[in-house]
Design goal:
By secondary structure, this protein is an alpha+beta fold.
Length: 168
């Protein structure tokens, strides 16, 4: 199963250093039956894009959590795309979870298919979204508009062999 895993640049660096992304369980997103049912008219490519964008929002939450913990990762969303055996993925039957999955074990770097990362030009909007995330969660429409502004930036695609260069 193709899984989209939220990450950060420091998380990606750790994965490269140890040879795997993990440990499991990890939250991820995929084209699940619930996502297909929710997004009735989409083809596979559109559904994968929805899963990618949900993972990007998960990356934003990881960045916000890092700031609360006193560690500030560069404000760039990172999504790791991996091919994971179906037996290592737990798919929720709850329709409200749509594309949410749990990857039960670490993912070796060899199973990564690609990495999506914000361009440097997105950093200001991503920083603003990180600051507004809590208020958006509390129902503040203006804050939600700021958070949605990060989604206006397309994540760039990188091949896995480019990861060391990205992190340099």
């Amino acid at each position: 199963m193709r899984v989209y895993l939220p990450c950060t640049l420091p998380g990606l660096a750790r994965a490269l250093a140890v040879g795997e992304l993990g440990p499991g369980p990890m939250a991820g997103f995929a084209v699940t039956p619930a996502l297909v049912e929710w997004y009735v008219s989409g083809d596979t490519e559109e559904l994968e894009y929805v899963a990618l964008m949900e993972a990007a929002r998960g990356s934003l939450r990881m960045l916000a959590a890092d700031q609360v913990d006193g560690f500030e990762a560069p404000p760039r969303r990172v999504v790791v795309v991996a091919e994971v055996p179906d037996t290592a993925v737990l798919v929720s039957p709850d329709l409200d979870d749509r594309g949410r999955v749990r990857v039960l074990e670490s993912v070796p770097m060899a199973k990564l298919a690609a990495v999506h990362i914000d361009d440097l030009s997105a950093q200001q909007d991503v920083s603003a979204a990180i600051s507004a995330l809590s208020s958006a969660d509390d129902g503040d429409d203006d804050a939600q508009f700021i958070v949605d502004g990060a989604d206006a930036h397309e994540l760039l695609w990188y091949a896995t062999q480019e990861i060391p260069d990205i992190l340099a």
